[in-house]
C-alpha cells in the first residue's frame, strides 16, 4: 500500500537544526531504527526530516543564525532553509510537500502528534480525522454542480417539445409537398389552355408582337413586384429581430453594471491580506519554535542551555534528573518553577498558534474569494465591452436595414404603378380572345410564383428538420451530462460520509489486528462507533457526526464490560493513539503524498510490543523511521537498518 513510486536510498544533510550542528544520514527503503539514549537529538533529526518534507515543526539551533536541511531522493533535491533575522526565524526553500497538514497529523507520529494526543486527551476524533478535508470547498463544489445541473435541466426543458415540433414540421412538409403537386398540376392545365387560346386568336392578331412584348414586360414587372414585397417583408422581420436582440443586449449591459466592483478597493484589500498572512506565517513559525524547544526540554530530548551532540554520560544523567524532577529552571527568566506551570504555558502557546493558523486559513479563504471576485469582475468588464461593441454593430445594421426598407418601399410603389400601366396598355391592345389569354398568362404567372415560394418553404422545412435532428443529438448529450452531474453531486454529498465510514472501518480493522499482535489479555475489544448528536451551534442546535470510542475489557471470571480510556495503562493508550493515527494515514492515503512515516516517543510500550508495532506499520510507508532506546531496538528484526545516536555522532550499524 506504500507510494507507487519505487524509491532508492535517500540522503539527509542537516546543519544547525534543533540540537544538531551538522550531520548526514542515509535512509534506505524499509525500516530505519534510530537508536540512542534520551537527549541525543534523535527527535531533532526526525523534526529536520519533517522540515525537509515541508512541515513547520522544525527549529533553528539556539546559537545559530542560519540552518538548513537537505533531502536527496530519487535524483531530486528538497531543501528547507531557516534564518534568524531581527529575532525572528523565517523558513524558505523547496520542500517535498507544499501542504503538510495531512502528513503532520497521520505520518509524522512524534510524541506531540495531534492524532495520538487526541485519543489520550479524549478530543473529538471525528474532527481530527476530517481536519485535512476542506468542507467549504466541498460545499462550494456541491453548489457549483447544482447550478450546472439546473442549467442543463433548463436546456433540456427547452428541448422537451422537440417531438411535437418534429411532428408539426413533418405535417407541414406533407402539406407543402401536396400543395406543390396541386400547383404543378394547375400550372400544366393553364399551359394547355394558353396553347389552345394561342391557336384560336392566332389569325386575329394584327399587333401580336407588340402585345407579346407588353405581356412579357407585365410578367417581369409583376415578378419584380412580388420579389420586392417579399424582400420588404423579410427586412421588416429582420428589423424586428434586431430590435429584440438590441433590447436583450441593453438588459445584459444593465446587469453587468449592477454587478461591478471597486477594483481599487479589492486590490488594496488583497495586498492587506497578503501582508497579514506573511505576518502570521512569521508569528506561527516563532511560536512553533518555542513550543518545540519547550517540549524537547520537558521530554529530556534537549539540554536547557545548549542541545549538543557532544554530551557525555554525565550530561545524560543530569537530563534524566531534569525529566523526573517536578521543578525546573526556566530558561527565559532563570527562576525555578513547577513543570506543570511551564506545560500550562506551553498549552496556551499551542492555543495561540492554532488560533493564528485558523486566522491564516480564514484570510486565505477570503483572499481566494476576493481574487475570484476580481477575476469575475475583469471577465464581466470584458464581456461588457464585447456586448457594447456588438450593440454598436447591431445599431449600424438596424440603420442599414431601415434605409433598405425605405428604398424597397419606394421600389414597390414604382413597380405597382408600372404594373398598372402595363395592364392598361395590354387591355387596349387585346381583343376578347386576347383578354382571356392575358388573364391566363396572369394566372400562370401567379401559379408559378406561388410554386416557387412553396418550394422555398419546403426547403426551409427540410432545413428545420435537419436542425432538429442535431438538437435530438444534443439532447442525448445533455441527458448524459445531467446523469454525470447527478453522479458527481451524489459523490460530493457523500464524500464526507464516505471518509467518516472509511475511518471507522480502518480503525476497527487495524485495532483488531494490532490487539491480536500485541496480546493485551485484559482488553477484549477496542472499536469506534459513528454517532449523530445534536449540538448547539450559535443560537441553534444542529446534528453533528462524532466518533465514540468503546473499550471492552474481560474480567478474571470471563465477564466482559465496557471501560473508559482513563483506566487504561499508558502503554495501552499510546497503542490506541498510534492505531488511530494509522487509520487516518490509510483513509487519507498519505502514502501517496509522502514516502516517510516517523515514529517517536514509544518508550511507554514494552520492547516486544514495539517490535510487533514496527513490523505491522512497515507494510504501509516506503520509509519507516523509528527513534528507539537501545534496549527497545534490540527486540526488532536484525535485518532492519540501524543508525546509532550518541557520544556526539550518528553512525550506521
Automatic annotation (TrEMBL):
Coiled coil (UniProt feature): 135-290
This protein's UniProt keywords: Coiled coil
Disordered as annotated region, ranges: 375-395
Alphabetized SUPFAM superfamilies for the sequence: P-loop containing nucleoside triphosphate hydrolases
Biased composition (Polar residues): 379-388
One matching Pfam family: AAA_23
PANTHER family recorded: GRIP DOMAIN-CONTAINING PROTEIN, MYOSIN HEAVY CHAIN, NON-MUSCLE
Protein name per its UniProtKB record: Chromosome segregation protein SMC
Species for this entry: Haloferax mediterranei (strain ATCC 33500 / DSM 1411 / JCM 8866 / NBRC 14739 / NCIMB 2177 / R-4)
Amino acid at each position: 500500500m506504500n507510494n507507487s513510486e519505487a524509491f532508492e536510498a535517500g540522503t539527509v544533510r542537516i546543519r544547525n537544526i534543533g540540537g544538531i550542528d551538522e550531520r548526514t544520514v542515509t535512509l534506505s527503503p524499509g525500516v530505519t531504527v534510530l537508536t540512542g539514549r534520551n537527549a541525543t537529538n534523535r527527535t531533532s533529526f526526525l523534526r529536520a526530516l519533517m522540515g525537509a518534507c515541508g512541515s513547520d515543526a522544525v527549529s533553528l539551533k539556539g546559537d545559530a543564525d542560519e540552518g538548513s536541511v537537505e533531502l536527496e531522493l530519487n535524483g531530486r533535491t528538497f531543501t528547507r532553509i531557516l534564518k534568524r533575522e531581527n529575532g525572528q526565524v523565517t523558513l524558505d526553500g523547496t520542500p517535498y510537500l507544499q501542504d503538510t497538514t495531512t502528513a503532520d497529523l497521520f505520518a509524522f507520529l512524534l510524541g506531540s502528534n495531534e492524532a495520538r494526543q487526541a485519543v489520550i486527551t479524549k478530543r473529538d476524533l471525528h474532527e481530527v480525522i476530517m481536519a485535512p478535508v476542506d468542507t467549504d470547498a466541498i460545499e462550494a463544489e456541491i453548489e457549483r454542480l447544482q447550478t450546472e445541473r439546473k442549467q442543463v435541466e433548463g436546456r433540456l426543458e427547452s428541448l422537451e417539445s422537440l417531438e411535437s415540433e418534429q411532428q408539426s414540421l413533418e405535417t407541414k412538409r406533407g402539406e407543402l409537398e401536396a400543395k406543390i403537386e396541386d400547383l404543378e398540376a394547375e400550372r400544366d392545365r393553364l399551359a394547355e389552355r394558353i396553347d389552345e387560346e394561342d391557336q384560336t386568336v392566332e389569325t386575329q392578331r394584327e399587333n401580336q408582337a407588340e402585345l407579346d412584348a407588353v405581356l412579357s414586360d407585365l410578367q417581369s414587372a409583376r415578378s419584380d413586384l412580388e420579389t420586392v414585397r417579399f424582400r420588404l417583408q423579410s427586412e421588416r422581420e429582420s428589423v424586428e429581430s434586431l430590435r429584440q436582440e438590441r433590447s436583450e443586449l441593453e438588459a445584459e449591459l444593465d446587469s453587468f453594471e449592477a454587478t461591478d466592483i471597486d477594483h481599487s478597493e479589492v486590490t488594496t484589500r488583497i495586498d492587506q491580506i497578503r501582508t497579514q498572512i506573511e505576518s502570521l506565517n512569521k508569528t506561527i513559525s516563532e511560536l512553533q519554535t518555542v513550543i518545540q524547544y519547550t517540549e524537547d526540554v520537558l521530554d529530556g530530548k534537549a539540554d536547557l542551555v545548549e542541545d549538543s551532540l557532544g554530551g557525555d554520560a554525565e550530561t545524560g544523567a543530569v537530563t534524566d534528573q531534569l525529566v523526573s524532577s517536578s521543578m525546573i529552571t526556566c530558561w527565559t527568566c532563570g527562576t525555578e518553577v513547577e513543570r506543570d506551570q511551564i506545560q500550562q504555558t506551553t498549552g496556551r502557546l499551542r492555543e495561540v498558534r492554532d488560533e493564528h493558523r485558523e486566522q491564516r486559513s480564514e484570510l486565505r479563504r477570503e483572499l481566494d474569494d476576493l481574487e475570484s471576485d476580481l477575476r469575475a469582475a475583469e471577465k464581466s468588464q470584458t464581456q461588457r465591452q464585447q456586448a457594447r461593441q456588438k450593440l454598436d454593430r447591431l445599431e449600424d445594421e438596424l440603420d442599414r436595414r431601415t434605409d433598405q426598407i425605405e428604398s424597397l418601399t419606394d421600389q414597390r410603389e414604382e413597380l405597382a404603378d408600372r404594373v398598372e400601366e402595363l395592364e392598361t396598355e395590354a387591355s387596349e391592345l387585346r381583343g376578347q380572345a386576347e383578354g382571356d389569354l392575358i388573364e391566363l398568362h396572369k394566372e400562370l404567372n401567379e401559379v408559378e410564383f406561388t410554386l416557387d415560394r412553396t418550394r422555398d418553404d419546403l426547403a426551409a422545412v427540410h432545413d428545420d428538420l435537419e436542425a432538429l435532428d442535431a438538437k435530438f443529438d444534443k439532447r442525448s448529450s445533455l441527458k448524459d451530462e445531467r446523469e454525470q452531474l447527478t453522479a458527481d453531486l451524489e459523490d460530493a454529498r457523500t464524500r464526507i460520509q464516505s471518509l467518516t465510514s472509511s475511518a471507522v472501518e480502518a480503525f476497527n480493522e487495524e485495532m483488531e489486528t494490532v490487539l491480536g499482535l500485541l496480546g493485551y489479555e485484559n482488553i477484549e475489544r477496542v472499536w469506534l462507533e459513528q454517532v449523530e448528536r445534536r449540538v448547539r451551534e450559535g443560537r441553534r442546535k444542529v446534528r453533528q457526526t462524532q466518533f465514540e470510542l468503546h473499550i471492552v475489557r474481560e474480567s478474571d471470571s470471563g465477564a466482559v464490560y465496557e471501560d473508559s480510556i482513563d483506566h487504561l495503562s499508558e502503554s495501552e493508550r499510546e497503542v490506541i493513539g498510534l492505531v488511530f493515527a494509522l487509520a487516518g494515514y490509510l483513509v487519507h492515503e498519505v502514502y501517496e503524498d509522502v514516502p516517510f512515516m516517523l515514529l517517536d516517543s514509544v518508550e511507554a510500550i514494552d520492547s516486544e510490543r514495539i517490535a510487533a508495532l514496527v513490523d505491522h506499520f512497515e507494510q504501509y510507508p516506503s520509509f519507516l523511521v523509528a527513534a528507539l532506546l537501545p534496549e527497545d531496538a534490540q527486540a526488532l528484526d536484525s535485518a532492519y537498518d540501524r543508525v546509532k545516536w550518541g557520544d556526539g555522532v550518528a553512525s550506521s550499524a
